[in-house]
Write a structure and sequence with these properties.
By secondary structure, the chain is of the alpha/beta class. The protein has helices at 41-58, 139-142, 155-165, 180-194, 221-238, 251-259, 272-280, 297-300, 306-314, 346-350, 386-395, 411-423, 437-440, 443-448, 482-489, 510-525, 534-537; strands at residues 23-25, 35-37, 68-72, 79-80, 107-110, 170-173, 214-217, 242-245, 267-270, 291-294, 334-339, 360-363, 375-380, 403-407, 429-431, 454-457, 470-475, 502-507.
Length: 544
Amino acid sequence: MALGRGFPRLPPGLGPGRRPYCAQPSPGGGGGGESVVRVPWAMRLRLQRGRQRGREAAAPPPPRAGQLLLRSRRPELSQPRSVTVGRWERPRLVSAGWKHRKAFGDYFQLEPSQEAAPALRPPAAAGPRASFAELGLQPALLSALPALAVGRPTAVQRLAIPALLRGRSALCAAETGSGKTLAYLLPLLDGLLSRPEPEPPQPEPGPAPARPRGLVVLPSRELAAQVRAVAAALCRPAGLRVRGLEGGGAAGGLRRQLRAPPPGPAVLLGTPGALRAALRRRLLALERLRWLVLDEADALLDASFAALLEEILAQAPPAVGAPGPAGPGEARTQVVVVGATFPAGLSEVLGKFTDVGRFVTLATRSLHCLPPHVRQKFVRVKCRDKLTELLQLLKDRRPSAGAVLVFCKDAGTVNWLGYILDDHKIKHLRLQGQMSAADRAGIFATFQKGEVDVLVCTDLAARGLDTSSVELVVNYDFPATLQDYLHRAGRVGRVSSKVPGAVVSFVTYRWDVDLVRKIETAARKRTDLPGMESSIKETLPKAA
């Protein structure tokens, strides 16, 4: 609306919709002169600040040229790889407004900043010639490594193997897919070879329980079967015996597993439920145990396993530094706790059975960091649109593309989503914890062999499993914690993977947005994910 003659001229920023504070004739002017509008100083400042904010919002500075660290649907929020947000600086987040209903359809993507996994980078001091032979392992173990297609040691293996060979009890923390299995198996088997088993005592009347010298506790039968295959390949040239113990059956099944020829396994791998059942039925005794490994410690200390684990530890010999009935010269058990993430109460549980104050912490530099070699995309979608997005992803895949993992929050969603995929003629497998042992047996092995390349699963498949053939992880339901996100994202880009792969996450609920904001902030600042260091850096208490 234009102002006609005779109306007072308004200063810039004071539009027709605002009433002037006061209007007075110009001094010395006649009746036809222009009037002067006097605006209070505080109102002028508010108007200037409003204009400045409007200009910034209307024309944000474009990102610098070059490769991007974060690619946004809105180019002004993209971040070049050459730019790092300061520690105390508040970055402009793509996900800042994702709790608003108009944000559906928005997305951003973390671009890979390097090609190879961080675990494959040789340390500057070691040079390119770092090898397993230089770590001091026995020749029988070195001869078995080519059969496993293992070349140079990874970062966690170079860090952990020398320390564990010296007999140190340790907290071994490394990112997913970095080779932690060999990092603890090789020192354990080396110790068995360097310290032969003593002469067996007089035979007991009746069937004798199995008395292993090395024990590896794992949270799932799928992971136990995978580690057992690696241990068997290492033990075969060395002449050592390894046995796996899986539950889900009657006592006769446990007895057959433990007493099948050859008797007396040197190394036993099992799940907490099966190990406790064997101990209660006196099919297993741990008085000769000298090496104890707790793999995927955060899952073992979950509410479903914590009581079982404590019962197993209570029957093991005293660990390093703990007081024993035979005095200071008594042989001790070397305890190794392994994982990519750790629960906050870890030291309290271990402190009941061992002197955790003497543990050494072995942690890699990339621990608790987002995988820098994996593309990660976050999409804000409505709940009713997730299925359409997933079907589109699966149908757009190339025929030669790798396998796909689809993570769901619970067993019910896995089954429901499986029925939908059946209707669309998409061949897949399902894996969730409510399946019986017979149904679960062989499912993951079939997926690993490539017979079916889509697996719909819960977080049961997110811990420790070798998924080197997986190229795409889809978080159909966004994970509940940052720890779960790291484990799921670690299913791609492993040290044995041929391609880095990608992760696509559907962000549906408001509480999902809270986690995404933390992930985006850590990515822009190139820092660790928050709230995950307490269990590693906390002071370990002395045993009571």
